Amino acid sequence: MNHLFAGFSRQTGKLIGLGASYIVIMMVLAIILGLLILVIPGGREIISNLVSGQSSIDEFMHSGDLQEVQPALQFFLVISLIGIALYLPILMAYWFAPALIILDELSIVEALKSSFLACLYNILPFTIYGLAGIIFMVIAAIPFGLGYIILIPVGFISIYKAYADIFHRQVQPAG
To answer: pTM to 2 decimals?
Structure first.
């Protein structure tokens, strides 16, 4: 059981600060997306219809006509794409930050910057890793979510392996 919380025995303050900054950033992102919902034309109407139970989704369920839900689907697609575009840089900054704080003893700002730059430099592998992760998450959810019992530890191991490969490459002697 001691091994479970060993990561918090060193750099505890920095890890708490990192977690707190992530929570604040995510709250700001949620506020931005909420404001965008209000600003985008038709957004208020779609949300008020969903909240009041007069959504076009109900009409679609009865009629099967996709034209009924197309405005709502387009609206949520736009909001989702904006959310993803705003979240990706945050994800990149926080991806390796805990490992950099604990193992390399970097400050919070240095860890966030190093993590972001590492992900940016390795954008193609990071993208492939993310897409594969989405596929594995869908597969893990199929057996009532029990696949996550395996996927979560394997995911943490893969993050550590990526950290070790990116930040601590062994240079092979020429010859």
So the answer is: 0.83
